[in-house]
Amino acid sequence: MKAAVFKGAGNGPTLVIENRPDPVPEAGEVLIKVSRAGICGSDLHLTSGHGLQLPLDSIIGHEFCGEVVALGAGVDSIKLGDRVAPMPYVGCGKCPACFAGQPHHCPQARFDIVHGFSEYSRVGVRDCVVLPAGLSDEEGALIEPLAVGLQGVRKATLPIGARVLITGAGPIGLATAFWAQRLGASKVAVMAASSRRRDIAQAVGATHFIAQKEVADPGAAIQEALGGAPDVVFEAVGLPGAIAQAIDYVKPLGTVVSLGFLGEPDSFVPVAALTKELRLLFSMCYDKQDFQYTADVMAAGDHRPRAMITGTINLDALPEKFETLRGASADCKVMVTPWNH
Prior knowledge:
single chain, alpha/beta, Quinone Oxidoreductase, Chain A, domain 1, Rossmann fold, 2 domains, seven-stranded mixed beta sheet, six-stranded parallel beta sheet, 10 helices, 15 strands, 26% helix, 23% strand, ADH-like_N, zinc ion binding, metal-binding
């Protein structure tokens, strides 16, 4: 099969398309023919040469869906031809984390065998959801990032009528805006450095958009947009200083949820959070019910998240396109099809 393989940063192409042996599903696994895969910001971070990095020769891509083309031993809950969206982990299936639908917390979790930037991938039968009829491949590949936003909003225990600020207008920030608006927030402001994703943010559910570089006082602009300080701030920037900024913006007794992917040291002044008596939470992932609910919501007719998709490329074009996304880009979510048709 063809696959995009990580060759390291700074010494030629970061990703190289190679031919690799077709995977064979083991017991409790299925093999899927990948239909669509999304490029994630964490893919870029983990191949940048800075902070936490993936092992060399990894096949990457964790936002994807595909068709089941082979079954491992003991699989009877999924059948050939089913279209599925997998969580990018394969758990043991026997521990409390796996029973809770959280294989990423399984002590024996495998992170190296599930990959979307390839023609085929093994996935755990317990760790994927069958796509409802009518859900497109593009929407199937959006389930993973949307589930990240859903889990963050669930962790915040968002009160009905809440004022919400999301810092960062990447796909995770936009997914969070979608769920915050859908799950009870009265006002949802997205703040980003520039206004280039204003239209996308408003399409998915943001009631306000603040271009930070275009206002003299971002804190005042936030309060004007929301009618007061936010009850909840979701940090989806993933840069040094972003958590400290969120603490500054949130109201006393409010909640800050960090969703940003930052693989280097950061700092904030604890007394700033202490005096506000706020809750500071971190949310990286999701559980299986987040995947299922996300699929069901889109299948029921809420297709607003598709506004995040700004392009589709084939696998051969991925290495070059991948590098263009490291800086400021008009793209939001770029989809990859491993098959050149």
